[in-house]
Design a protein that fits this description.
The complex is a heterodimer of chains A (113) and B (112).
Chain A (H helix, E strand, L loop, with lengths): L2 E4 L4 E4 L4 E3 L1 E4 L5 E7 L5 E7 L5 E4 L2 E4 L9 E3 L8 E8 L8 E2 L3 E6 L1
Chain B lengths: L3 E4 L2 E4 L5 E7 L5 E7 L5 E8 L2 E5 L6 E7 L2 E6 L8 E8 L7 E2 L3 E5 L1
Parallel strand pairs in B: 2-11
Antiparallel strand pairs in B: 1-3, 3-8, 4-5, 4-9, 5-6, 7-8, 9-10, 9-11
Classes of the chains: A mainly beta (113), B mainly beta (112).
Chain lengths: 113, 112
């Protein structure tokens, strides 16, 4: 079945460090790929998305590129801030799947000053 | 002017009770969803309604029953609550059965 695998956390970084959170997927057809972020005590917010191969999603300094050949959608940021501390979820939806989001397990990021 | 709102925010109850969680969206969206987030933060879809019609019904115990009185509301009723139902339940909506989903703040259910 369709699934998403993310690197386990927590990821602990110092401010201004480079961030990578790995995400790979298994899906039938050509899924759309998403990164959602959940700040403490809040609901999920869409961070970025990509709907076809080689698309790059970007927002707030975060980027991810849809790599069909490696079935990956890794999240990167060049310089993290304390305010980026949150749980990050990689997700996919498949065509004809009624927009059902299939999530990875989430990766907690903690950024220290 | 919260886009997707849920009530209550916290719900603590005893095993065997029946409870409801309400969700409302003021975005004019056609599609609404319920997700369950367990203690390890794992998120899984439960149900989805499009224009008040059930379109996603995952493998969920039939103690859980969603109800959509209109496009702006999707409520979740849970009968005979069990310890394993303790979780955070998120409501979401999207413009149609595709497109970005907007999530509510969650309802933390604790079953004692």
């Amino acid at each position: 079945g369709d699934s998403v695998t993310q690197m386990e956390g927590p990821v602990t970084l110092s401010e201004e460090a480079f961030l990578t959170i790995n995400c790979t997927y298994t899906a039938t057809g050509y899924p759309s790929l998403f990164w959602y972020v959940q700040y403490p005590g809040e609901g999920l917010q869409l961070l970025l998305k990509a709907t076809k191969a080689d698309d790059k999603g970007s927002n707030k300094g975060f980027e991810a590129t849809y790599r069909k050949e490696t079935t990956s959608f890794h999240l990167e940021k060049g310089s993290v801030q304390v305010s980026d501390s949150a749980v990050y979820f990689c997700a996919l939806s498949v065509p004809g799947g009624y927009n059902k989001l299939i999530f990875g397990a989430g990766t907690r990021l903690a950024v220290h000053p | 002017d919260t886009a997707v709102s849920q009530t209550p925010k916290y719900l603590v109850t005893q095993m065997g009770n029946d409870k409801s969680i309400k969700c409302e969206q003021n975005l004019g969206h056609d599609t609404m969803y319920w997700y369950k987030q367990d203690s390890k933060k794992f998120l899984k879809i439960m149900f989805s309604y499009n224009n008040k019609e059930l379109i996603i019904n995952e493998t969920v115990p039939n103690r859980f029953s969603p109800k959509s009185p209109d496009k702006a509301h999707l409520n979740l009723h849970i009968n005979s609550l069990e310890l394993g139902d303790s979780a955070v339940y998120f409501c979401a909506s999207s413009p149609s059965a595709s497109g970005e989903q907007f999530f509510g703040p969650g309802t933390r259910l604790t079953v004692l």
